[in-house]
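DM between two lab members

TW: hey, do you still have the Purple acid phosphatase 29 entry open?
JB: yeah, one sec
JB: this one, 394 aa:
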Amino acid sequence: MEINLSNRIMFFCFLLIATMATRGVGLRFDNKSGEFKIVQVADMHYADGQSTRCLNVPLDQQATCSDLNTTDFLYRVIRAENPELVVFTGDNIYGKDTTDPVKSMNMAFDPVVALKLPWAAVLGNHDQESSLSREDVMRHITAMPYTLSRLNPDDGSEIDSYGNYNIEISGPEGSPLVNKSVLNLYFLDSGDYSTVQSINGYSWIKLSQQKVYKSAPHEQKENAPGLVYFHIPVPEYASFDSNSTKFIGVKHEPISNASINSGFFTTMVEAGDVKAVFTGHDHLNDFCGELTGIQLCYAGGFGYHAYGKAGWPRRARVVSAFLEKTADGQWGGVKSIKSWKRLDDQYLFHNRFSSPLELVVKFTITGTSTSIELKRHAAIYTRRIEFVTISDRQ
Ligand SMILES: *[C@@H]1O[C@H](CO)[C@@H](O)[C@H](O)[C@H]1NC(C)=O
Ligand SMILES: *[C@@H]1O[C@H](CO)[C@@H](O)[C@H](O)[C@H]1NC(C)=O
Ligand SMILES: *[C@@H]1O[C@H](CO)[C@@H](O)[C@H](O)[C@H]1NC(C)=O
Ligand SMILES: *[C@@H]1O[C@H](CO)[C@@H](O)[C@H](O)[C@H]1NC(C)=O
Ligand SMILES: *[C@@H]1O[C@H](CO)[C@@H](O)[C@H](O)[C@H]1NC(C)=O
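TW: and the structure you got?
JB:
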């Protein structure tokens, strides 16, 4: 293929951005299990903590429910899944009800910090609605302990919005792919509201941001699948608004995407490496649906101060990538990627500290074998539901 000069210059610009945007964070697949697991937390809507009441919980729960239930849920879901990374996809705090945004963020992210877990965050449309701007909110996040979040590529390039970066997950210690990214994660800021007078509604992913996605180093990217995280669904999610398009999971509300299409989905389809996109924003949707080879997934609402549906548990989405074993017994590239959900229901641990052994006898599991996996994990039966195979090379 002929590459003309301007393309080549662009390519090197991208390469430069990529080098700046990629931090050697040392995240890698587990050497024993060949697995890398990510818990996605969407829409915590954290405000002031104990004094912030829960929305849409059963009547008899209202008196005892606050932001602290969100904190507790986060601890318990982490304990159940034991992920390598936690990703927060925006509306982490609910600015309008937050009297001190710094305190609010510190409380919201406290579980991952306390557990010393690597974590990454992007912004939603509500994070900046108190006294801090989007830039200041993102700056605070990037300065917090154990986070891999970054503001933007710091090469001086003009870029819209705050929190556009990528993270590479390398092969396991002791494997031939120890120095190569075998899974690429991309984080983008889908903005808040349109500032263009003739266009109503939510903002969109600008062309300048799409470069961050396009710019991951070629040699790193080769053969490595990508997963993309941001807050507001791209308009292609709206193809699931008619019930004719199949998806796995729940759609309890309309898709609130931006009213115009900035082409990011097409960019991803063309590049061909992205296997799945994970958003939040619509708390009552938690499905994954496939469109031209890309799974478009929602996490469903996590936070108790976020709107929800009484009796419909708050939830999180989990995704795991599994490596293949090569003929010589070494770990190779990613073989399959799967996703499932975790609900804050009777099947999740009730106490983040309680002894696993006590819990075994308390759980009775019901359901069909197609939608529920019973997993004996550290002597605890836990429930994961609605499995989606995102990618599989068997
Ligand atoms: C919130 O937490 C309190 C204290 O642990 C608990 O009693 C209550 O049931 C929780 N509410 C919900 C809706 O999870
Ligand atoms: C795991 O790491 C150890 C030590 O680095 C190495 O000896 C071993 O071969 C690795 N296991 C696999 C399956 O790659
Ligand atoms: C990975 O990089 C380290 C440090 O540069 C080097 O010593 C090692 O040989 C490399 N391993 C492989 C398998 O490429
Ligand atoms: C899709 O199905 C849901 C639930 O069955 C229903 O409430 C909704 O009106 C349907 N939407 C369309 C566009 O048919
Ligand atoms: C979402 O995108 C679809 C397809 O482009 C469009 O028809 C719809 O109006 C958009 N939704 C909103 C809320 O703007």
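TW: got it. The pocket of 2-acetamido-2-deoxy-beta-D-glucopyranose (ligand 3) is lined by residues 176, 178-179 (CB under 6 Å). The first strand starts at residue 35 and ends at 41.
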